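Exercise 7.
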Amino acid sequence: MYVHRLLKHAKLSVFSFITFSAIIFLIHADSIIYHDSLHSAASTEVPEKLHAHNHKSREGIRSTLAQLPLHSIQEKDEAETTQKALVAPFNVTEKQRIAWFREQLHKFKILKSNNLTKQFHGRVLGFFGHECEAQFFMTWISPASLFGGRELLSVESIFKVHPKACLIILSRTLDTRHGYRILKPLLDRGFKVQAMTPDLSFLFKRTPAEAWFHELRKGKKDPGEIPLSQNLSNLIRLAVLYKYGGVYIDTDFIVLKPLTGLRNSIGAQSMNSASKHWTRLNNAVLIFDMRHPLLHGFINEFALTFDGNKWGHNGPYLVSRVIKRMGKRHDFNFKILPPMAFYPVDWNKISGLFKKPKTQDESRWVEAKLLQLRGKTYGVHLWNKHSSILTIEEGSVIGRLVSDHCVICNHIYSS
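Solution. The predicted structure, written as C-alpha cells, is:
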C-alpha cells in the first residue's frame, strides 16, 4: 500500500510538471507568434510560400492558445493606470490642471515613443502592401479589456460587406498579445485586420498639429476635463486619413452597405426639415483621399481652437465649424451626405432600435424601419455613449441588422 501511494504521488508530480511545462511552452509560443506577426507586418517583402508554411505550422499551437488567460497581471495594471491617468480632476483652475497634467505626464503612454511606434509607418505600408479592396481605420485608446462584443460587431460588419478590405486599429493597448487574441477569430478566417501602436509624432509631422502636439508632450497644454484620449482620437483620425487616405469609422458603427463607392465624403448628423440644409455634421465616419485639403483644414482648426473642456468641440462641432465657414464658395472636392447615410437615428432615439417588438404594430414598424435602412443607409451609428448599457434584444431592429452583418456572431445579444 505504501509503495502504491509513492507511485501515485510520483505520477501526480510528473503530470503536474508536464502540465506546467506545457503552459510555459504555450505562453512562450504565444509571444513568438505575436512578435512574428509584428515582424511580418513591418516587412513589405514576405515570400508567399514561407508565409503559408508558417501559418499552417502554427495553427495547432494557436488553437490551444485560445484557452489561456487573455492577458497578464502586468497588462491589467498598466490598463487600469492608463485609464485613471487620462482623466483630469474636475472643478480646478486651468493653471492647476496644467500642473496636474505635467506631474502625470509620464503615465500618458500614448504620448511616448517606443520600438513599436518607430515601426509604425513601415508596418502600415507593409500591411496595405497586400491586396486591399479598401483601407479602413479605427482608433482604440481605452484598455484592451474594454474592447468587447459591441466593438467586435463593428469590425465584423466591415468584413461582412468588404471581405477583401484591410483594417488597421490604431491602438497601443490592442497591439499586444491580449489584443492579438481578441482579433484572432477574424484572423483565423483570413480577414486582414491588425492593431498598430501609432507614432503620433510621425502622424502629426508636417501638419498644423505638429507644434500643438510638441507643446502637449512638454506638458504646456491644458488637457481639459474631458478625457484626453477622446480628443486625441478626434485628431488621430484626421491625421491618419491625411497621411494614407481611406475610410475612418468609429467602433460603434455597423456597416450595412459597401463604402467603396464613396469618395471625400462626410455625413450630416441632423438637418433642418424646412430648408433641407444640414445643421450639424459628425466625424464618426470620414472617407477621404490622401492629402485632401479639407483634412488639412480640420487639423488646422483643431490646433488653433483646441478646448478640452467642451464635449464635441474638437470633433463633430469642429468639422461643422470649418465647413460652415466655407459656405458654398470653395474649391474643395467633397460631398456632404444626408443623415440617413450614417446617422439615421439620433442619439436620443437610439434605444428604440434595441427593443424587440411586442405587438403587431411594433412588428410592422420594425419591418418598415429595416426596409428604410436597407435602402438608404450605408451604416448605423449606435451612439455607444448612450446605448452601451442597452442589450440588443432578439428581433429588434439592431438585432436583425447585426444578425445579417456579423461574421462570427458570438456577441449579438449581449450588452
